[in-house]
Amino acid sequence: MIAVKNVNKTFGTNQVLTDVSLEVPKSHVVAIIGPSGAGKSTLIRTINALEPIDNGEIIVDGISIHDKKVDINKARSEIGFVFQSFNLYPFLTALQNVTLAPINVKGLSKGEAEKRGKELLTSLGLGDKFDAYPNRLSGGQQQRVAIARALAMEPRVMLFDEPTSALDPEMVTEVLDAIRKLAEDGMTMVVVTHEMGFAKEICDEIIFMAEGKVVEQASPDKFFSNPNTERARNFLSKVL
Ligand code: ADP
Ligand code: MG
Predict the structure, then answer these.
(1) Does the pTM exceed 0.90?
(2) Which GO terms describe its molecular function (predicted)?
(3) Candidates 7, 9, 10, 14: which one to mutate for ligand 1, based on the most atoms within 8 Å of Cβ?
C-alpha cells in the first residue's frame, strides 16, 4: 500500500533523509520510532507530499505521489494525516471541521457529509460534541475530531505524527484506543510515536530511525527484546 524507495532529502546542507526505503502492506501498522531530529516527521510528511524529496520514489496505493504529472490534491485526499497539534479550524464546530473537506473537495451534499460526519464522531465517542467549538473540547477530544476529519475523506492510508505527544497523560489512552480500533478495522497506518507500549502491542513492524537513516526494521517482539544495533539498545534503555 505504501512503498518508500531510496528517498533522500536535504534541507540546505543538512541531509535529513539518507536512502530511506520501507514498505507497508495493506492493513499493516508500522511504527516509526527514534530520537528527536532523526527525520521521522520529515519522512512521514514526504509520504503525503507535504515535503518534496530530492530523489527516490514514494508510491501510495499505486500512485507515485512525487511525480509531477500526478494530481497531488487528489492523491493527498487518499491519505489521512493527523498531526501532533490537532490543527482544527477554531471557528468551525466539531461537525463542521469533519464535513468541510468532504463537501468542498469530494463534492458531497451537506446532508450526506453530515450523516457520515455524525457517524464518525459518534464512533469516536464524540456523539454529544457535534456543535462544540475546538476551544470547548479537551485535547483528547480535539485529537479525536482530527481523526474523524481525516477519516471523513475515506482515506486508503492514515499517517500519524506523534498523535499523543501534545496531550495530558490522562487523554493519551482515548486517542490510542481510537487508533487501535482503526487497526482492528484493517486500516493501513504509519504512526510516529513515543508510546512504546502501544507500538509493541498494535504494530506489525517497528522502524527505528536515527540521523536520517532506517537503522532497524523488525517485528515488535524482536525489536523490543533483542535489537540488532547499539544505537537502538541505547535508545531503548532511555525510553523503556
Ligand atoms: P524528528 O521528527 O525525528 O524529530 P524532523 O524530521 O522534525 O525529526 O527533523 C529532522 C531534521 O530536519 C532536523 O535536523 C531538523 O532540524 C531538520 N528540519 C526539519 N524540518 C525542517 C525545515 N522545514 N527546514 C529546515 N530544516 C528542517
Ligand atoms: Mg517529529
Answers:
(1) yes
(2) ABC-type amino acid transporter activity; ATP binding; ATP hydrolysis activity
(3) 14
